Description:
alpha/beta
Amino acid sequence: EKEPVTVLVTGAAGQIGYALVPMIARGAMLGPDQPVIIHMLDIEPAAEALNGVKMELIDAAFPLLKGVVATTDVVDACNGVNIAVMVGGFPRKEGMERKDVMSKNVSIYKAQASALEQHAAPDCKVLVVANPANTNALILKEFAPSIPEKNITCLTRLDHNRALGQISEKLDVHVSEVKNVIIWGNHSSTQYPDVNHATVNTNNGQKPARELVGDDKWLNTEFITTVQQRGAAIIKARKLSSALSAASSACDHIRDWVLGTPKGTWVSMGVYSDGSYGIPQGLIYSFPVTCEKGEWSIVQGLKIDELSREKIDATAKELVEEKTLAYSCLN
Ligand code: NAI
């Protein structure tokens, strides 16, 4: 039997945490033959609820689950962690300024970066889910300088999967027949869901999604805004965030990163920009990536048309502004 992999979930008493930990314990993140140990971190006011989640994990008798730690101590939580899924954060409450929310999250991610750097396994892979996801990941990277930058990512796979879902619904084909959409940029309403390189498997072979949809107006307007605003639509419908799909996408993100993307398929991940596609270096930006042997690489050489260029730059601009705001909170 394989050695267990230790997975940290922060904010584990929250909505997404509650959906995510059973998925991890069932093998949805690391595969059906990979034993796991789950570390769950939350803050003191949620300690009792967190312990309730631990009780349920024990009660579910998951064959792959070799241990559970539920703690409010960030050092215990980070100790020996191989995969860290950062879901904990400070939510924007009514009447709060953007800067106040940013400031709270900057201090959380600064502290947790240091704990991970000192106590996690040296090759620890980090996925930031909590919003503002890209900028939280950037702060984490800045304050954990000994963790390789290629190990620090943020979640845009939910947006990616939402884009696949919209094309699948529009064409009435199964979602697994659609691939290679791209989410560019920020996990926010300025993100750019791009279908220009997406394809669909049909009985007559692989076809461009744009050609099959045959409705440029829909693709250039409603499709984009639906994906951009899907999170808000779910909150409106459920009165709660999109926890199930966020948890499932977080599993997809880590699984593909660790086990590799299928040949000919890319996925979207928020990663540290190396300047590809003219995106400023030093941002955590969502790109199309392929993964092999535990490492992602940005898909190169895709043709970018004029409309896409504008949208790719607009979401980069927002991230530059967020970065400036985050830095102003450090002083
Ligand atoms: P939630 O409010 O139900 O859970 C958040 C949990 O984090 C709470 O239990 C809270 O006590 C905990 N927490 C707060 N500060 C903490 C700290 N310093 N250390 C550890 N835990 C801490 O929220 P939910 O619905 O689970 O969402 C979590 C985050 O994920 C939010 O920031 C949300 O905006 C974001 N999100 C991101 C998505 C993405 O695609 N990137 C999609 C959906 C949500």
